[in-house]
Model the fold of this input.
Amino acid sequence: MTDDDLRDRMRRADPARSLRPLPDDEARRLVAGAALDAPAPPRPASRLLPVLVGAVAVVAVVAGVVVLGGGDSEQAPRPDVALPTTTRPGLENGPGLPDTSGGRPATSAPAPPGTSTTQAPPTTATSSSGRKTTVAVLTAAPADGDVRCRTPEAAVLAEQAGMAFEATALKVEADVVTLQVHRAWTGEADVVEVRNTTGAPVLLGFEPEAGRRYLVAASDLKVMGCGYSGPDEPSLRALYDEAFPKR
Amino acid sequence: MEPRQTGFEAVAQALIEPLRRYLARRTDAATADDVLSETLLVAWRRRDEMPAEPLAWAYAVARNCLANAERSRRRQDRLLVRIWQLARPPEHTPARDDPDPGLARALARLSSADAELVRLWAWEELGPAEIAQVVGTTANAVSIRLHRARRKLKSLLDEQAEGERP
Done:
């Protein structure tokens, strides 16, 4: 095999062979964004999203059943879809969580030795308005550095999320965070209470902020991570809007 | 509009497609988009350093931006795993079809530095002096290492071919 043969074979396998040129206006927008010293906003499915999950991770683990008000604008989440109301054992593995498979077929990851995997059952409380609130419980996560997330996809969000809502963290107390739901793309809730029993290490690096707004998706009362939940940002909101178009 | 900005815009427009291909060959589409924006931003901030022939220089900027993005993602992933219950991930993304798995396997058996030299030579079509500018070494060192890397890659491919013969 000559160098030319090798180069020809490399070129045939070039991953960029099928890359279509960027439209001129998009290229101009990119360059103009740089010249303004401000990078162009990332697309909704940006790889940067997983970091957003971390912030809500503390906040998130979910449950909430009740009634929802409003939601009326073009982009507004829909208020009229029922939230799953069954109480289920506390949180375990939810969709949209870190992908540890390295591309291999996925399997559930066992908890590490010494880590409690007992999942406290959700509790059901009755609020002053007579509405029930279900509280789910997060258990400890195995420590594994070899983890990556796949890019969030609207289709996955649409298919798997039983709840998708915007909410503001009202109260942050030790391992309990209370969220006020404003609107829901799918599901119904007006209060979500999150209890985190994983202990301090799980909170490493992230502090839930009272008053901050989040977008949270959940499947079977399990929060979807890996870019599917996070602080309320345009890119994440666009993902939700794409997943749940106005019907 | 100041002349320098006009000049930068013209040059940057010409760099976009080569940079997009460079990134598409080395990372996923979403990261490539992010890193392309970042690369252009860094290029703008360092436009006074931009040489008359800016392509290899721009590849070097993109290479650093991509390395930063990958480091950042690894940190995020390590942090996330402490936070989230590990889970069955969504099964929705099939692996991209690799047109030449044998070549991919052979490249994977080179050191990452050597494989990158071969990629820059074959895919970006750079000469030793330009490759040296991208990876931050001397043209002479690139020539020697590239020669060895190509020889080893060919040898690995030949081994594969031998093994596949009936």
Notes: The CA atoms of residues 91 and 138 of chain A lie 5 Å apart.
